[in-house]
User: Fold this.
Amino acid sequence: MVKAIRFDKTGGPEVMKWVDVDVGEPGAGEIRIRQHAVGLNYIDVYFRNGLYPLPLPGGLGMEAAGEIVAVGRGVTQLQPGDRVAYAARPPGAYTQERVMSADYVVKIPAALGYEEAASVMLQGLTAQYLLRRTYRVKPGDTILIQAAAGGVGLFVCQWAKALGATVIGTVGSDEKADIAKAHGCDYPIVYTRENFTKRVREITNGAGVPVVYDSIGKDTYTGSLDCLAPLGLFVTFGNSSGPLPPIDSQDLAGRGSLFFTRPTLFSYIGKRSDLETMSAELFDVLVSGKVKTSVNQRYALADVAKAHEDLEARRTTGSTILLP
Assistant:
């Protein structure tokens, strides 16, 4: 039997159980994948605690990498033995093996290992759409990334720097400031003792920034808006501190005709062609060395409750891998 994490009610980390599951064989258009590494992301917490509703009982986990062990009828672009990775819905990556649509996976370049691939699919593709599509960062831009030492944050810092941008980032400690700086953040701001809005204005000589990427949510929303230049774009792509308050359109107008967007990765990779293009660009910056993965924590998949506890307590940096 295959082991997997399942939960039948929402709540804290204790609701996740390590159980036997029957995976089955792939049907038409499907593959069966033996997973070597699973990525941990804050969206997993949102599903577990009920902020993002899921049918229950169910599984968790959005990304993983592994080896195809069987293909279903009609699958011609993949074969057993192929090394693949994915970021996909529905959740269910917290498992040793799974059956899923072949359209959701992409082949891994030979230069990338399973852990690297599993750590980049959701966070790396998120960084790709943030920097290359939601707001296309160009040389000379100055940007603000909240939670700069987190998984997406470290990708954004490195990639934006490689694109020729000046990077300002918020972090929660001096240790995280050092990590962010080592990954391309020009101005790490320790928000626990500095007013990040005031500091951003100082760095930009009062002008503000054209874009703020914010995954923290409630605690940073107003401050993030105050960092924007007129016609600036506020990008909220997570809410680790809690959901945003109701959005007042007149508030956006009064602050300088600001733009607001709430993108999701799965909108951007909804078309197979977009998934392939985005993945190719992500893999290119990784293989070239412009962006490096930072797998800073590893846990056995069976110990995922501890991983969730550490993630929610902000004791993690970079990416975290679960080993089936």
Remarks:
- The domain at 139-262 is CATH 3.40.50.720 (Rossmann fold).
